[in-house]
Amino acid sequence: MAKNKKKDQKRDQKKAEERPPAPEKLGRKEYDKELERLHVELVRLQQWVVHKGLKVCIVFEGRDGAGKGGTIKAITERVSPRVFRVIALPAPTEREKSQMYIQRYVPHFPAAGEIVIFDRSWYNRAGVERVMGFCSEEDARWFLDVVPKVEFAMIKSGVILLKYWLEVSPEEQTRRLSGRIDDGRKVWKLTPMDLKSYDRWDDYTRARDEMFAATDTDYAPWYVARSEDKKRVRLNVISHLLEQVPYKKLPAEKIKLPHRKIGRHAAVDHPFRYVPEKF
Length: 279
What we know:
Blueprint (H helix, E strand, L loop, with lengths): L1 H17 L9 H25 L2 E8 L5 H9 L7 E4 L6 H4 L16 E6 L8 H4 L5 H20 L2 E9 L2 H12 L10 H6 L3 H15 L6 E5 L3 H15 L35
Parallel strand pairs: 1-3, 1-4, 2-3, 4-5
């Protein structure tokens, strides 16, 4: 067992050495400018998806602290939540545990004119559930055997399926998780499960590799995005997403605010309770 662990560590070290050096951190000004441009394109994509009745399903997976939430927020902050729906399911209930595993995810699949984003997905079974012992090894292997068939059925039904894995180094993960401890804005992100899984880096690496081997298919491939720089990974993923869903800019009608009349009704003298203006 110790021999295998040393082999895994050497392999991971070799991968790290082969990995190209990370570019310099992207500046805020450059990031904001590019993100604004991409947001315009996402709005155009949204209009095209509604116009054509497309069905788009996007899956985000990765280790804790890889930047999934921030990337999803960057995608959705300027579009309609009625078109871009984010699904982040809690732990399954006792009833859901008794269901067929994929069953609780199916109702959230996109209908025509929708883009559904899964912040973690059915791939929980291949990752956290398998590593943390929430499912049996037999269940995990059965899942890996069946899920490509399910995804093939999704695509045959007209769903555009995109699967993203955000890859983060152990050093950067440690930095991010440590930063959540004393930051009152982020402390809610540090769950007991994060702490339990923190020391299982190699187990997650092995689970990820087996997941890729079984589910990285020609019709539903995994796209890996390096997330050492949060700003860069957001821009890279959005750019890639826009390339995967063919769309066109719809002709826009000229918008002109109508003329309105003000003053035909006198405002009542009501004792309004104004919010204190502390700022």
